[in-house]
Amino acid sequence: MTASKIEWTDFTWNPLTGCTKVSPGCKNCYAERMATRLKAMGSRNYENGFHLTLHQNAVNLPLNWKTPEHIFVNSMSDLFHEDVPIEFILQVFCVMKQASWHTFQVLTKRSKHLAELASDIQWSENVWMGVSIENSNYTFRIDHLCQTNARIKFISLEPLLGPIPKLKLDGIDWVIVGGESGPGARPMHESWVVEIKNQCIPESVPFFFKQWGGINKKKSGRLLEGTTWNELPSISKNIIPTL
């Protein structure tokens, strides 16, 4: 378990690392940059760089972490990558069910594969399932997400690369928005973010604004119209936006 700087989680857990690009949001993948750096530093888990690699020795680690935490699963990969054996995916879900004191947050861009496996997965209540969407061309991933029996279903609109005027929020428990950061970061317009926030409010869907992004994301900050939006799904303690 690694402490995370991601604003909506506490720690990360990577039973697999490495990935391949599937859509425009992957262009400037932060995980790829980090994997390259970790390989150069001699990290054992990144001997293969950003090539998909299963780490069987990491699968059971959450069972040893006794303090309840929010844990982002596979920040350095995609659990539903087409080359990951189904048995491995089911094993990861089994461990998450056993580690019932933790809350696990899983994100994928491979929503079709998620939907295909949904009926084989034991959806324990401590697993939050989400899909990443970068623009209006990929909102179909929400339909796939809604085919699962995950108790908490969420959408991560990061990096947000265009407006999404008609966001499907029926059955969605949480929306995260964030701009791209790092070298070559593509701009995110404030109007896109406000439009999404304004769709969430009347539907009572918690809204979390992660960052503006850019080369210096700390300098860009997290304020949206003068407010920090840190809302979480209703089963957790909601943090009221602060002015």
Would you tell me the structural class of the helices and strands?
Answer: alpha/beta
Low-confidence stretches: 236-243
Question: Can you summarize the main beta sheet?
Answer: 8 strands, mixed
* Structure summary, number of beta strands: 10
Share of helix among residues? 10-25%
For the residues shown, what is the average pLDDT?
94
Series of secondary-structure elements, N-terminal to C-terminal: EEEHEEHEHEHEEHEH
**What is the rounded Rg?**
17 Å
The coarse silhouette is globular
Strand content: 15-25%
Total of DSSP H or I helical runs spanning 4+ residues: 6
Tell me the strand order in the biggest sheet: 1-2-5-6-7-8-9-10
Outline the structure in words.
The chain is α/β, with parallel strands linked by helices and 243 residues long. It has one domain (2-13, 55-220). It has six helices and ten strands, in the order E-E-E-H-E-E-H-E-H-E-H-E-E-H-E-H. The chain has helices at residues 30-40, 86-98, 111-117, 140-145, 190-200, 217-220; strands at residues 2-3, 11-13, 16-17, 53-54, 70-73, 103-108, 127-132, 152-157, 174-178, 207-211. The strands form two sheets. It has an eight-stranded mixed beta sheet. It has a two-stranded antiparallel sheet with strand order 3-4. A hairpin with a 7-residue loop joins strand 1 (2-3) and strand 2 (11-13). It is globular. It starts with a strand and ends in a 23-residue tail after the last helix. Mean pLDDT is 94; it is low at 236-243.
